[in-house]
Design goal:
17% strand, twelve-stranded mixed beta sheet, 13 helices, single chain, 419 residues, alpha+beta
Length: 419
């Protein structure tokens, strides 16, 4: 392996017909280039889709009430029920694996009438009564002022954090808004902050036409009492909300006399399950990229194997002389295998380098022209490069194995007689 004479012989053998060697190497170069580009494109698509989640706590679910579908304990089906703050406290106390249990209430919604007034400007916006930890579940960029805090909760302060879309609709450009008042369903709230959505398309005003006020002030201003419209629940790291949600449902069913097998009474959306589906999709895409890339690479490996068979045929007399002088079968085999691996590795590294250059240029173009929807930062990581190197070395050994076996089968007397 470290013999200078051996390497001189390898380089001389491969450069003897350099055009043939270059064409053969191109097959491997193209195969590994395609593999790298496919993996980078898949990663770019994955980054773009996951960026649309923003930094949202994906190990979360949202839970609301629906019509009860089974009679239980003398109570009829078809009745409705509501969550309350005692339900929230019971869930927190009974399931320590949960990180956040956030009660929420809401005004407005799709097709709602104008519910917010400021001077002569009006607008129809979603208004949420929330606790301060909700910003951990649905991260936002606070662009001015602050978000809600527990001082607001305890004092029932009528304060509001508005989206940039709300600000643009109710205020003139450049107008001061921190400390001013907006009227929500006839009740005055003081604006203490503005936010922008954390997502790849976070500049869209439609995603920022929402208003957040303290849960307690919301309940007091709009006569909600202890009622909770719905909940946002997040599990701690290391726990799955999918596994914990059954415990949550059991607590609610017990507290509200719901049949244990009534799966309709509690509506829910499991964000973690949806995120897992996205992850599964991109694992499949990565597998397809490896499959296609390796198939293309295999065609190049077959080309190298064919060329090495020709090289062995051309060097039959040389091999015979070496065998006659006492060269062992292993020395002949190792020479052919080393040539094959060297050619495969050099051409493969050239393919990786070309792929890296294309990815670099593509990222520069994306940076210059701004983010593209559903596609961001195509790249390959170090583990991918190491896997590619392993594939190259394995392929080189595979390509050289048959020619090497043919070489050691040559009998010295027959090789010397070869013309």
């Amino acid at each position: 392996m470290f013999s200078k004479d051996s390497w001189d012989e390898i380089i001389e053998a491969l450069s003897r017909n350099w055009f043939r060697t270059a064409l053969t190497a191109f097959g491997v170069l193209w195969g590994i280039f395609i593999l790298v580009i496919l993996l980078a494109a898949g990663k770019g698509l994955e980054n773009g889709v996951k960026k649309d989640f923003g930094n949202i706590a994906t190990n979360s679910m949202f839970m609301w009430t629906q019509t009860i579908s089974k009679p239980y304990k003398g109570l009829p089906k078809g009745r409705r029920f509501s969550y309350d703050l005692d339900d929230v406290a019971a869930i927190k106390q009974s399931i320590p694996e949960l990180r956040f249990v956030s009660p929420r209430n809401q005004l407005g919604g799709f097709g709602g009438a104008n519910n917010v007034v400021r001077g002569i400007n009006t607008g129809a916006f979603n208004v949420y009564g929330d606790y301060p930890e909700y910003i951990e579940q649905q991260p936002m960029n606070i662009t001015s002022g602050r978000f809600l805090n527990y001082g607001d909760i305890e004092a029932r302060r009528k304060v509001a954090v508005i989206g940039e879309g709300v600000r643009n609709a109710l205020y003139d450009k450049g107008e001061d808004f921190i400390g001013t008042y907006i009227k929500i369903n006839g009740v005055n709230f003081m604006v203490v902050g503005t936010y922008a959505v954390v997502a790849s398309n976070g500049d869209s005003e439609e995603e920022q036409k929402q208003i957040y006020v303290p849960f307690t002030a919301f309940s007091q201003a709009f006569n909600m009492g202890n009622d909770v419209g719905w909940m946002a629940i997040t599990a701690k790291d290391g726990y799955s909300i999918t596994q914990l949600k059954t415990k949550v449902f059991d607590i609610i069913k017990t507290r509200h006399s719901i049949h244990p097998e009534d799966d309709r009474a509690i509506g829910n959306f499991n964000l973690y399950e949806q995120y897992q589906k996205v992850d599964g999709l991109f694992i499949a895409l990565k597998a397809v990229a490896y499959f296609v890339g390796i198939l293309v690479l295999l065609s190049g490996i077959i080309g190298i194997s064919n060329i090495m068979l020709i090289v062995v045929k051309e060097r039959t007399k040389e091999i015979g002389i070496r065998r006659a002088l006492g060269a062992s079968p292993w020395s002949i085999r190792s020479q052919i295998l080393t040539e094959s691996v060297f050619l495969t590795l050099i051409s493969g590294m050239a393919g990786i380098s070309l792929g890296a250059l294309v990815i670099y240029v593509l990222n520069k173009i994306l940076d210059a022209n701004g983010p593209v929807e559903m596609f961001s930062n195509p790249s390959v990581d170090l583990s991918t490069i190491l896997i590619a190197l392993f594939i190259l070395i394995s392929s080189g050994l595979l390509a050289g194995f048959i020619p090497a076996q043919n070489a050691i089968k040559v009998k010295p007397i027959d090789a010397l007689r070869d013309e």
